[in-house]
Amino acid sequence: MKRLVIAAILAALAGSAAAQTPRIRNPGVIHLPSQPLDLGPKPFTPLVAGASSMTNSGTPAPSAPFSDHAILSSFEFGFNNGDHKLREIAVLQSNGAPTFTFQDADGNDPFQARAEWLVSPSVTPGQIAKVGGGDFDIDIPAGPANTTLVLRGFGFERVPGTDANVRIIGITLDGANHRIRVALLDDQGPDYSQVAKDVATHAFFGNIPLGEFIGGGQSLVDVNNQLKTNAGSIIRGGFRHYAIQVQYAWVPNALIRGQGTVSSSSRVIESGRRPSGKFALTGFRFAYGNSDHYLLGLGVELANAVPGGYADYRTATGHDVFAPMPAGEVVVFQDTNRDDPITWDASYVEVK
Asked: Which residues neighbour 18 within 8 Å (Cβ) at sequence distance 6 or greater?
């Protein structure tokens, strides 16, 4: 009898549980909107930074968020109180911000500077630092496949407490052979004529460089220590030491529209294909044709080759170095006057 009662109770409970269990219908296949993952190269957006009054160095706020994925389109430096010998000039990306430095040995002269960059997360940044003298080559690691080497920033620095005139200054990138040629010369070396000829004939890598580097690596701190350690010595050939830092980037070729080089013995473009649209620098070289000189200003502003090339900057900031730059002039390289013969080249890539 007890067994029958227990069986009845269990049957009743099972029926109740079955009644409360919802029936699951076949949901079928759920179709979501197609959203393919975008892995393609990202176009560039411009930004600018500058200040009309800095001393020794400064970090002006950029017009848009800054990163080490910013490639350099233009730069311009100018002392506000006359020309000076040069100890250091730099436009570098440091801790997520642009930093400008322009000074002679005492570092107390006011200056103004500006630069423009293009930013894309698709570029691969890198940097190298060395100590050397004269005109020398620096090897860098090869970049990713199907990319082009462009400039992000640079810095030349002589031994602390010293400065010198400038005869030749420049940086030229060679992406095919992943190397960089740099030069900072006054008239101290016994033979600077070949370097000047290279600038005039655009044969940047056609000749054996004058000078050499003595070491260095990725760390600018290490390089500056080397610079101080070797402060009393002279590079083979008679050239003074300087530290060089080059910040560069590899840009996907899918973002490259073209490339070119422009040159002149004046401050307007006399030879070469002028850039259009967005572009970034891949090198620049300047040379005085008669002797070394103090420096009042140095800059490359290829956008000024067309009317209104820099109106956007003047509107945004209300100032400009050597404001405004004479129409059509695209470089600044001079002491207090403009009567010294010069030659220069600037190379670039046009980007999307």
From this structure: none
